[in-house]
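Sequence only, no structure available. Ideas?
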Amino acid sequence: MVSSRPFEGRRRQMATSTSSSLLDLMTLKRADWSILVQIEEKIGEQDPKSCFECMKCTSGCPAAEFLEMYPHSIVLAVREGLAEEIINSDLIWRCAFCLKCRERCPQEVAPSDLIIALRNIATDRGIGVPEDLNTVLNSIMEMGYIHPPMKVFSRRLRKTYTREELGLKVMRGPKDMDAFREALMSAFEE
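Reply:
I predicted one. Tokens follow.
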């Protein structure tokens, strides 16, 4: 049976203990269990404690090579009370939110939902989105895509080609840019 309060047992265990024995060996910080209540409110009935580290989430993650911690490691760190370090890093902003981890997890832990919860906590605290991500979002708002089409360089011919010269369709932004921007902004507000 899945508990409706995933961290309840851990909080009870830590409340009865006089001190936390868990220590982050890299930073020598003690685990912070108070944040688990906030995370629990945001992820609902998912239980990070049920993760048995099969790494299926990590093996399917397209952003894994850009992360300092893999999805299963993020779940483990949060489960062990080390969420504070993750929230204060830019790690949570590297997730592409493709939901492959949710599809692949046999325990239905969904690291992506946990990462979204951590993002929400970060923004609630006033921790800003990294500047490089803002640049990408601004480009999408202006043009409808991340960056304009680039020319292709042929090493053999030592010449550059445009999409049209290669017989490719011209890349166009959304037909109704105002409607696109409005839809994008409403998605961010949810």
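The longest helix spans residues 111-124.
Hope that gets you unstuck.
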